[in-house]
Design a protein that fits this description.
The structure holds 2 protein chains of 2 kinds.
Chain A (H helix, E strand, L loop, with lengths): L1 H6 L19 H8 L4 H27 L19 H12 L7 H19 L6 H21 L15 H27 L4 H16 L2 H15 L8 H26 L3 H9 L4 H31 L11 H9 L8 H29 L8
Helix pairs in contact in A: 4-7, 4-13, 5-6, 7-8, 7-10, 7-12, 7-13, 8-10, 9-10, 10-12, 11-12, 12-14, 13-14
Chain B lengths: L1 H10 L8 E10 L2 E11 L4 E5 L6 H8 L7 E6 L2 E2 L4 H10 E4 L11 H11 L5 H14 L15 H13 L5 E5 L7 H16 L3 E5 L3 H7 L2 E6 L2 E6 L1 H6 L4 H11 L2
Parallel strand pairs in B: 3-8, 3-9, 6-7, 7-8
Antiparallel strand pairs in B: 1-2, 1-4, 4-5, 9-10
Classes of the chains: A mainly alpha, B alpha/beta.
Chain lengths: ~375, ~260
């Protein structure tokens, strides 16, 4: 009897949707479920808070409250805490290296224009992105070169041996990033090519550059390369370093890109081919836009690694931000402030890398077109 | 019913040249002989349904027609153009042949409208505005114009497949190939896609459909082809094909798919 009853059932009234119980959403519920879910959980939470307290309070005390901020020499550092006078007194050198101080406005202009272009490209509301991108890639590098290096339009020549500090770090990183990405994409496409010669060349190139340490590459570029090229070809040391970094990073980039290309289903290419699109259009319009979106975390990871690797140019005698701060620490007048120096370098590197990271996350959300939750 | 009208459309005039001609087609995957001596001639306006067990080479055969698969022996002629190794010739044939895939293969990073306009703009070099107007016309026809600015990921499977059909139509192809267009769909959505296909058939489009929708085959097809182990086993008009199959394998296959 009862079985028959359960076999037949008709629901006539549909159930209206109700709000979730109030204790399962909101800040209090979050705290309760994540920090104070039980006695042991609560204990750990309190212990962790105590550890944070032990770490953060003295650090803040040292870095901010007890720190000395203004002055010109170490005598001005009277407080118990950090001596930021070391940084502020030498800030110009940290930013511009050995660039002549009456010419630093040229560097300022270049980086102001660069920041403006980047901001224009990054803010979605601003129009004419295509034109700005063309200007950034085709016009700006020449302007930057003529301003930074000089030698024409009545500007005094400032040789690259006088470049240094944050400015050199940025030049290395930006040129490396901008050149390594397209080269990496070409290498990745080549490695997936069905043409045996193209494929072999790309495989050999990628495996060679990935197999050697960057320090070796820079050293070779600086010391060995001049031995092989004819005497009259005298490539600038910075240019050689840039070529080394670009080739090295493009090999890494190629593998990131290849990973992204492999994630795109074959059906996408087939659909493109069935519509009569040729190889390059298929790649440029269908596969790469999707693959690059998937690759954003990997690409930015490579960018960040590249940015930090630029400090290796120290070994060929180029003074990037880290090297120039280290050099400053060796100054007898400022002995003993290495914590401040390294903390400053770390902060600057972190700001740049973290900005790249945040922007990439924003970009991922912006380009998200599916309906699934992120 | 509609068969007669469109068959007469397809056969009128002096255009006796077949739309698609496969002659002695053979294909191997490594050592595996997937297509064996396929001979098939498709008239303009003819609707052909291809069925058969999985692995019988049906999809491979129609994918050879637009060179998504390469065949090793035999000749393929589409609308008078022989399929050669020349990439220009292949692309010319692809512009004449629309294809609808089992898994839709819409481009997820583009909106529905952009999916449809991509090939007209980049392959046919038409102005964007004109291509969009034309695409809207086709989206209207598959009854999905109101979703034109959504992304494929926001649509149901049936809606996506209708968009895929519209996308192919935007190049005004002479032939449409359907590779199991309803196999990946929920039962509720199969009908909306089949309806669009039936309409297309009634308008006189030359169609080759690999499908297991036997109802569709009965109402629309001029000819049903049964394939097994890389060969065409039986070929007939739908009425005798379903009511009086000649080959034992066809009988077995039909009894299995129509048995319940």
């Amino acid at each position: 009897m009862s079985i028959e009853k359960t076999l037949s059932r008709v629901t006539e009234k549909m159930i209206d949707s109700r709000p979730a119980p109030s204790d399962s959403i909101g800040a209090v519920a979050w705290l309760r479920s994540n920090l104070f879910a039980g006695p042991i959980n609560t204990l750990f939470t309190l212990f962790a808070l105590y550890l944070v307290y032990l770490l953060v309070v003295p650090s803040l005390q040292w870095a901010l409250i007890d720190a000395s901020w203004s002055g010109t020499s170490r005598e001005d550092c009277t407080g118990e805490g950090a001596c930021w006078v070391f940084i502020s007194a030498r800030l110009d050198q940290f930013i511009y290296g050995f660039y002549p101080s009456e010419e630093t406005w040229r560097v300022d202009i270049v980086f102001a224009v660069f920041a403006a272009l980047i901001a224009w490209l990054a803010i979605p509301k601003l129009p004419a992105k295509g034109w700005v991108a063309i200007v950034s890639l085709a016009v700006f590098p020449f302007i930057a070169y003529f301003l930074l290096h000089g030698g024409s339009f009545g500007l005094e020549i400032v040789g690259t041996h006088e470049w240094g500090g944050l400015m050199l770090t940025l030049v290395l990183a930006v040129v490396g990033i901008v050149a390594a990405l397209p080269l990496g994409i070409l290498l990745a496409l080549g490695r997936r090519s069905e043409m045996p010669i193209v494929k072999s060349i790309c495989v050999v190139f990628i495996e060679f550059w990935r197999g050697v340490p960057l320090i070796t590459v820079l050293f070779m570029a600086s010391v060995m390369l001049p031995l092989f090229v004819p005497g009259e070809v005298n490539l600038d040391k910075l240019v050689r370093a840039l070529i080394g970094i670009t080739l090295f990073q493009s090999a890494y980039m190629a593998e990131v890109v290849r990973g992204g290309l492999q994630a795109i289903p074959k059906g996408q290419t087939e659909a493109g081919m069935a519509l009569g699109l040729g190889y390059w259009r298929n790649m440029g319009l269908i596969v790469l836009p999707q693959a690059l979106k998937l690759m954003i975390p990997g690409i930015v990871n490579t960018f960040i690694a590249l940015f930090k690797d630029t400090s290796l140019v120290l070994i060929i005698g180029l003074f990037d931000l880290l090297a120039i701060v280290q050099a400053g620490l060796a100054d007898p007048k400022w002995l003993g402030y290495s914590i401040e120096g390294y903390a400053f370098v770390a902060l600057v590197f972190w700001v740049f890398c973290f900005s790249m990271s945040r922007y990439s996350q924003y970009l991922e959300r912006l380009l998200h077109t599916g309906h699934k939750k992120r | 019913m509609t068969t007669t009208t469109s068959a007469s459309q397809g056969n009128t005039g002096a255009d006796e040249r077949p739309m698609i001609e496969l002659k002695g087609l053979n294909k191997w995957y490594g050592d595996f002989h997937v297509l064996r001596d396929i001979n098939l001639s498709v008239r303009k306006g003819e609707r052909i349904v291809i069925c058969g067990p999985s692995g019988s080479g049906k999809s491979t055969m129609i994918r050879c027609i637009n060179h998504l698969e390469e065949h090793q022996e035999g000749d393929i002629v589409v609308n008078g153009m022989p399929l050669t190794q020349d990439i220009k010739q292949i692309e010319a044939i692809r512009r004449n042949v629309g294809m609808v895939f089992q898994h839709f293969n819409l481009f997820p990073h583009l909106t529905v409208l952009e999916n449809c306009c991509l090939a007209p703009i980049w392959v046919q070099k038409r102005p964007r505005r004109e291509a969009e107007a034309e695409a809207m016309k086709y989206l209207e026809r598959v009854r999905i114009a109101d979703q034109a600015h959504k992304f494929p990921g926001q649509l149901s499977g049936g809606q996506q497949q209708r968009v895929a059909i519209a996308r192919s139509l935007c190049l005004s192809p002479e032939v449409m190939l359907f590779d199991e267009p309803t196999s990946a769909l929920d039962p509720e959505m199969i009908k909306e896609v089949l309806d669009v296909m039936v309409e297309l058939a009634n308008e006189g489009m030359t169609m080759l459909c690999v499908t297991h929708e036997m109802g569709f085959a009965k109402t629309v097809a001029d000819r049903v082809i049964f394939m097994d182990q890389g060969q065409i086993i039986e070929e007939n008009a739908p009425e005798p094909f379903f009511n009086n199959p000649q080959s034992e394998r066809t009988q077995l296959f039909l009894s299995q798919i129509l048995g319940h």
